[in-house]
Design a protein that fits this description.
The chain is an alpha/beta fold. The chain is built from 10 helices and 8 strands. Strand 3, helix 4 and strand 4 (about 110-115) form a beta-alpha-beta unit. The chain is globular.
């Protein structure tokens, strides 16, 4: 690991860091609330009438639950596990299933876990929970119409960070999982080196120091081998764009810069099969072999 204090943006003052990472302020309160309402409305519409298994406890230690949507009778389907954003302290699985109908129509099931939000849970515990969700799909997915050999993980913002924490190597043994349990991944607008968070408003809630932030940064951890699409919005916060570019280089891929989108609406493109984001996700899933 490099020098703990040698991180991107360290030379910026606190105001400049806030501009880079406070995407809620960048959007403004009216647009932000409009985006959050769209998340909920689109998710409700997407799952209405879909076959599934909502409200399953996936982690006995925390009691956290997940929803499974878009399964079919007879043949287990690839599972897209979507990890919601909200800077680890907001949102839930209910606002996060907007891609479920599109994926169902293309033969893919959607799994949306909750995780305990900060400050009730530490970030280490949140990471453990989302890894436990992946472990649940691998162990119990077949009973619920999911193929445990075709798990693809994605997420937006803080969920992009959590996606990265399932992509890295070294955690799988603790859960009794194969190293390649995550077959592919698609983080959106993620945070992959979270040391800058120690100096922005979010840290009032997550309460990280630089050493803990480094240990929870996918860009600083042993690389896994899964194929990935690393996406970000054209009009995203500057910190998120830079983090995406750096992590894409680290992973050996070209970043997907989605034109005309901002931090909050870029991931909603997954509701529409005609968008580049959906085409790339469906291509990733199709590339996963049994």
């Amino acid at each position: 690991m490099d020098d703990l204090n040698d991180w991107p943006g360290r030379e910026l003052d606190d105001e400049a860091l806030d501009v880079a990472y406070n995407v809620r302020r960048k959007a403004g309160p009216e647009l932000f609330e409009r985006h959050m309402a769209r998340y909920l409305a689109m998710s409700d519409d997407a799952v209405a009438g879909l076959p599934g298994h909502p409200g399953i406890v996936y982690d006995e230690a925390s009691g956290e639950r997940l929803d499974v949507w878009g399964v079919a009778d007879g043949t287990p389907r690839p599972a897209f596990v979507f990890l919601h954003g909200g800077y680890w302290m907001a949102l839930s699985r209910r606002e996060s299933a907007f891609m479920a109908r599109m994926l169902h129509e293309h033969g893919v099931a959607t799994v949306v876990p909750d995780y305990t939000l900060a400050p009730e849970a530490t970030l280490e515990e949140i990471v453990r929970q989302v890894r436990a969700a992946v472990a649940w799909v691998h162990r119990h997915g077949r009973e619920h119409g999911l193929d445990p050999e075709r798990i693809v993980v994605g997420g937006s913002s803080a969920g992009g960070h959590l996606t990265g924490m399932t992509m890295v190597d070294g955690w799988q043994e603790e859960f009794g999982l194969p190293r390649d349990v995550v077959k592919a991944a698609m983080p959106f607008s993620g945070l992959f080196d979270i040391r800058p968070i120690t100096r922005v408003y979010v840290n009032e809630v997550v309460k990280l120091d630089v050493a803990r932030a480094a240990a929870l940064s996918p860009a600083l951890l042993p690389r896994g081998g899964c194929p990935a699409v690393v996406a970000v919005a054209e009009h995203d916060g500057g910190g998120f764009v830079e983090q995406t570019r750096r992590f894409a280089r680290h992973w050996g891929v070209e970043p997907l810069i989605v034109p005309g989108r901002d931090h909050f609406d870029v991931v909603l493109d997954l509701a529409d099969a005609g968008t580049e984001a959906s085409r790339r996700l469906l291509g990733l899933i199709a590339s996963v072999t049994r």
